[in-house]
Structures are given as structure tokens and as C-alpha cells.
Amino acid sequence: MPLYEISHSTPLSSSQEESLAKEITRIHSTKFGTPSLFVNVQFRHVDSSGSAGGEVLYVGGKRRQTNTIIAHIRTGPSRTQSDYDTLTLELTQAWDKIIKPSYHSQHLSRVFIMGAILAGRESGFVIPKAGEDGAWIKENMAEFERRADKGESDFVELVEEIEARGLGR
To answer: Is the pLDDT of residue 16 over 90?
Structure first.
């Protein structure tokens, strides 16, 4: 349901990207009760010219090489400013733990939380409003199980996670 966009000038290995994606997924799904299947993480490497497919970042009117995470998430009354502030800290800590920056340009310099998801569909399901994940899971559980029984591996894992974490109760 959320989309985390990571633009980075620091080269990341596939292993680092995978570890960071798993940690971001863990952080978000634990903090907001979202099943892991619905947490999206996208990486975009910005080369030394500051370009990623035509994208260039300017800070203070100057072209910059930075590492940035932009999280597009659902907002609602069940989520507080403190939740968002803590999320920015946890994302920064995850970056530091996995990337182990040794000099300034390797640090995560920006984390932005954007409450811009008004509606969406994932894997054929309309995404719920923030804070309504439990009811949404209950409402869709039969279809999740049907797709798991058909052998769709994502849904086998989803059903296992829902049961293990007690989601949708």
C-alpha cells in the first residue's frame, strides 16, 4: 500500500538493496499493521552527474548528489505526527545499519513522508484507508486463501503472515 522511493547517489549492491527493502517492509508493516506483500520499495540510482533517467536534484539552487527516501503512505486519524517522526528516524537508522556510511556523501540526507495515496489497487484489491487494515484483511481473507490454495506464492506467504502476526482480528 505504501510506496517507498529511494533515490541514491551512493552505489548500492543488490544485497544492500534487498536488505534495505526487507527492513523498510518490516518497519512499515510492524508500525502500521500492513501485510508485507503490500509494502512497495523502489530504488533509483542517481549517477555522478546527478541524473537518474533525466531526474536531477537541486538543493539550495545547486545540483546535489544525495541519498533520499520518499515514503508515499496513507494518512488517517489513527496515525499521529509522532508515528511519522518515528518512521523517519527508523528509516534513517535502517540506512545506517545496512549501508554503513563511512563518509558524508554516503549518509541518508533526506527522508520525506508524503500522505498522498488517495486510492489505489494492489494485486487486484482496492487498498483500505489508513487504520482500516484489520477490517480489510477480514473482508478479503477468503480471496487471499483462495489464491493461496491455487498456489500463488505471494498469497501463500500473505496468509501465513496474517495468521502468524494475528492480523485482521
So the answer is: yes
